[in-house]
Design goal:
By secondary structure, this protein is of the alpha/beta class. The chain has helices at residues 11-22, 40-50, 66-69, 71-92, 124-139, 159-169, 186-201, 221-234, 267-273, 280-293, and strands at 2-6, 26-30, 54-57, 96-101, 143-148, 151-152, 172-176, 180-181, 184-185, 209-212, 219-220, 243-247. The protein has a six-stranded parallel sheet, sandwiched between helices. Strands 6-9 form a two-stranded parallel sheet. A two-stranded parallel ribbon has the order 7-12.
């Protein structure tokens, strides 16, 4: 299978490319310089010339807070870029696997969010991502949108890396404890998407549509931070664990409002595609061990 990956230098994109190559797939890894997804003519030319069997879009504008003051680039990448890829895929009869986010929900619902719950994004990032999802749905039938949450991995910037850095600098960290969600290892996202690529290559018909996929068990940022330090300590990566104190979202104001409830109901992906929720603690262990090695 010939797989085009956009945003291949991001935390999920890099993981997809690495794992895909290990699986022996023909991976075409493109960063923004090689393929800017906002340029329709460039996207058309690339896909027409390269004829991938499937496209995975890991490119996105992910600066959640910055998006509040610069909506144009967020919409350009997350809405218009997604639409550009969908148009080129439709013209060439190629399926598109795309990633979306828990930030399309307002987080006010009691209980986990399923795929049929109405979105109501609170910030520009969430609004632009939802607009991208809607564009793909309207342009291309053969699409799979995987909504993921609280992503962390070996590459790029993420919460795990930030905590380890701050933990070195301070004895006490105050971390938000009233937002609930499922941290999701980029490696597990890559495994899931590449598993679908393989199944497609084996001739299986994939049930297109939107799926929720996140790590379990449900946690808070504060509990996640504690788990990061405990595991890093166990692996001998830090000299001491900082104290991690709980604060509320109100005590930690940010330009973009985050959902208090980011919990996904992941029954659909299990029932329809036979994919179960990964345990984020396994992913955390793998990421930390990889960093320790390097
Ligand atoms: N991170 C999270 O916690 C999280 C949570 C839920 C959902 N998601 C979704 O998961 C997906 C992957 O996120 P991630 O964490 O891997 O993001 P990331 O690390 O920020 O990577 C995104 C990549 O997209 C590239 N990109 C930006 N604009 C582009 C363009 N016009 N053309 C081509 N590439 C472009 C970026 O390159 P530059 O560095 O050059 O800008 C970057 O390498 C996204 O769809 C995101 O919305 C992420």
């Amino acid at each position: 299978m010939r797989v085009l990956v956009t945003g291949a230098k991001g935390q999920v994109g890099a993981e997809i490319v690495r794992q895909g190559r290990n699986l022996g797939l023909d991976m075409m890894a493109t960063g923004r310089a090689a393929l800017d997804i906002t340029r329709q003519d460039a996207v058309n030319r690339f896909i027409q010339a390269q004829q991938p069997d499937i496209v995975i879009n890991a490119a996105a504008y992910t600066a959640v807070d910055r998006a509040e003051s610069e909506p144009e680039p967020a919409y350009a990448v997350n809405r218009d870029g997604a639409a550009c890829l969908a148009r080129a895929c439709a013209a060439n009869n190629i399926p598109l696997l795309h990633l979306s986010t828990d930030y399309i929900f307002d987080g006010r619902q009691q209980g986990a969010y399923s795929e049929t719950d109405p979105p109501n994004p609170q910030g520009i990032y969430g609004k632009s991502k939802l607009a991208g999802d809607r564009a793909i749905e309207s342009i291309l039938e053969q699409h799979l949108i995987l909504r993921v949450s609280w992503v962390f991995g070996v590459d790029g910037n993420n919460f795990v890396k930030t905590m380890l850095r701050l933990g070195k600098e301070r004895d006490v960290l105050k971390v938000v404890a009233d937002q609930h969600g499922g941290p999701t290892w980029a490696g597990a996202i890559a495994e899931t998407l590449l598993g679908l690529v393989k199944r497609r290559g084996d001739g299986e018909a994939i049930s297109w549509g939107t799926y929720h996929y996140s790590g379990q068990p449900v946690t808070t940022w504060q509990a996640f931070a504690k788990a990061i330090f405990e595991q890093a300590d166990k692996l001998g990566m830090i000299d001491r664990q900082p104290r991690v104190e709980p604060i509320t979202t109100a005590e930690y104001p940010t330009p973009a409002q985050r959902p208090l409830n980011s919990v996904f109901d992941c029954h659909k992906i299990t029932q329809v595609l036979g994919i179960s929720q990964p345990d984020w603690r396994t992913g955390l262990d793998k990421v930390l061990k990889k960093w320790r090695k390097s």
